[in-house]
Amino acid sequence: MCQLIFLIYYLFRRPKIARLTADSFPNVPPDEFLEWKRLELQSIDIFLWGSAILCGLSFFAGAIVGSMHPSSPSDAQSMVVVAQVGLFVAMLVVLVIAVIPGQKAVKIRKRYGFTV
């Protein structure tokens, strides 16, 4: 659920950042602003694409697990847990990858003290 909230937040935030120009921040050198914008959009894109792909995979995994006919209820629970843990780990990996350009963007933003 939390992932869905962030997904919606960044879906609305991305166009706002994409529309920004260096003229909006005169105290920031244009090349630094463009680098910040590129890194910020890259971080958001990684998160959005990763979330969308993992959401699709979760439906696919749910369909596969749901179509299996386990020999016992504990086998069914085990399959669901394995699928959920795998998707959780994959989401953590996506978040770590998205944080790398995001942290570089934060450093640039803090260096010049601007907010969006």
Topology (SSEs and partners):
Layout: H1 2-19, H2 30-67, H3 73-112
Question: What can you see in these coordinates?
Answer:
The chain has one domain. The mean pLDDT is about 90. It is built from 3 helices and no strands. Helix 1 (about 1-20) packs antiparallel against helix 2 (about 30-65) and helix 2 (about 30-65) packs antiparallel against helix 3. The chain has helices spanning about 1-20, 30-65, 75-110. The chain is an all-alpha fold.
Give short descriptive properties of this protein.
about 120 residues; mainly alpha; about 85% helix
Shape field: elongated
Order of SSEs: HHH
Domain module count: 1
Instruction: Please report which band the strand proportion falls in: under 5%, 5-15%, 15-25%, 25-35%, 35-45% or over 45%.
Output: under 5%
Number of helices: 3
Rg, rounded, reads: 19 Å
Averaging pLDDT over every residue, what do you get? 88
- Report the span from N to C terminus: 26 Å
**Largest sheet properties:** none
Structural class: mainly alpha
Number of strands: 0
Q: Give the uncertain stretches in residue-range form.
A: none
Short description:
The chain is mainly alpha-helical. It contains three helices and no strands. It has helices at 2-19, 30-67, 73-112.
